[in-house]
Amino acid sequence: MTQPTPIRRDHPTHSPLRTALELAATGVPVLPLRVGKVPFGNCRTCAAVACGGRPNMKDAGPCQCPAVCHAWAAATTDPSVIASPAWASAWREAVTVAYHPGGAGLTVVDLDNPAAVAWAREILPATRIVPTTRGEHWIYRGAMRSVNAVRDGVDLKSTMAYARWLGPGTGTMTALRDVVRALAVKEPPTVRSAPQAIAMPAWAGEGACPHRTPAYLDRGIAMAEQRITEARSAVHATVYRTFLAVLSIHGRCGCLTEAHIARLFTAAQTKGESPRHCTDAWTNARAKLGL
Fold first, then answer.
1. pLDDT higher for 282 or 43?
2. What is the reported pTM?
3. Secondary structure string (H, E, C) spanning 30-87
């Protein structure tokens, strides 16, 4: 592919749409991002993944929706799609542009903190570098499998992933080396069990469990799963709020079992949350409620 033409991020006439069109002209598949660096959610046809696709997941295929949908799979270089009426409302709300590195034949090593940057400077081959809010993007020519958290503060973004466009960067882009590819080979993950069932007494003065029948709890868990599954954006926040709601109702009487909690974690991980994010959200929700 042709290396992206330098685009000044601070130029007053460079709206996200214009930036996207210029990037697409160089062979870089693009999509709009809304506030929070998140893509636009599923269209009505694909709400709750009714279309059979799974946004942001490894088995998602190219998006066939007329509107922006399915995150990286929506990225395109077709100017007639990018500037189409179907995408117009998304560009009006967009705060920045994202691109599909793998679709452009690129790999982004996302370094999310100063320690990760220091590690990269010592270990990785020099290449084009783009400053980010908290660290740097190191961009290599060549595509590979995307993997999150290959080490602390380091993600690999290439196929089936998206990265923010933060400018052309500096330095000469070099070919993907084996030392970078090797980062994607991780030890088989340890299966983490769901948190232990919460065994706490009922609220003072209440006595018996207020949930009366198992069906009441099962219905509540099912509704929580549905809320997570139908999240179109801000998945992190939705998972936390859902965990908080479940614990606020069911967290003090000991009726939650590992099976119930595992159902919630599974729903969150299906939306792309990692086991660590699930555990953190659960822990934070318990702390918020004083459990």
1. 282
2. 0.60
3. EEEEECCCEECCCCHHHHHHCCCCCCCCCCCCCCCCCCCCCHHHHCECCHHHHCCHHH
